[in-house]
Amino acid sequence: MSLGLYIHVPFCLRKCRYCDFVSYAYNRNDAELYLNALNREMEYYAQRRLDFNTVFIGGGTPSILETDHLERLLYSARQHFQWTEDAEVTMEANPGTLTEEKLYVMRRMGVNRLSLGVQACQQSLLNTLGRLHDYQQVIQAVQIARVVGFNNINIDLIFGIPGQTLHQWQKTLATVMNLQPEHLSCYSLQLEEGTPLAEAVAKGKINACPEELELQMYNDVIDFLIKKDYQHYEISNFSKPGFNCEHNITYWKNNQYLGVGPAAHSHMQMQRWSNTTELRQYANNLMDNDLPVVERHHLTRQDAMSETVFMGLRLIKGLDLDQFYRRFGQGVYDIWPQQINKLTDQDLIEMSEGYLRLTYKGLRLANQVFVEFV
Questions:
Q1: Mean pLDDT score of the chain, rounded to an integer?
Q2: 147 shares a domain with 76
Q3: Domain boundary pick from 212, 231, 252
Q4: What does 347-373 look like in DSSP terms, one character per residue?
């Protein structure tokens, strides 16, 4: 079973208007505090002698770290943990914070997959989202990354942005194709409570994207990318053959992962736990030789089975029924016969070739399906 490592870097130049992830305004002193504490946390978990198939450095904006700090972070991760020889090692980055020097450090220290937060090509939409880069910086970042040696680049895009037209979305997809990314993650905008963008919509300052238009955008991205020879392998994810994101597949198959850093989450040995979101509390705990865990949940067998089903249904191929039986000693239909019959009658799921999967209709109503297995 694969084991993933997630490292959370909690800094940004400025929080985007739609973002509710844990992040703080960057300054070098706080970065020093964070790196010292992170090294302590890694030292603790190093005692377990874990081997990781995948490593994902996310945020926040990991690429905001200065070059020496990036090198320290990656050195600590390599010093304290074993990475398998063919480990997929991803780092998230924003185009405006990448430099050639940083990219060289990433490659030298083992990062082999770059995930760029692009989101849109039109400056007006980037302004709506509160992004600090422009599309020319995206082009430059990809060009430099290719020269440095990155041959596995993901592009994150968002659709359903207030004011976004179908033509703009189609233009974004066509424009991004010029970058020849190996992977695309295309998400519908979620108006998270408490974010500036959600508040602007609630106050009527801007209008949310109509649901019908958002659905058309989703249909368009599937049709467009399949015609461009991308595999649609998860609800929001598309890749060239051989370039699926293995780290995210760890999540979708409900396998184990360790998270380090403020606000990081872990899932190991039938437990889920999360770290404090407060940077100074995180650092103080670790300087006092205490783990910064603020919440720990012991999973029941029923919890694990439910999570395995609704996470597995995110994959286009679906949930492997034989794997589920080997893992839990029961078949999916033995546990949820009524739910499966109901969803099958509604043409939202199907059982075929050893998999339980969403139908074309179910793909667009996925949350309605997932709730049946909670």
A1: 95
A2: yes
A3: 252
A4: TSEEEETTEEEE-HHHHTTHHHHHGGG
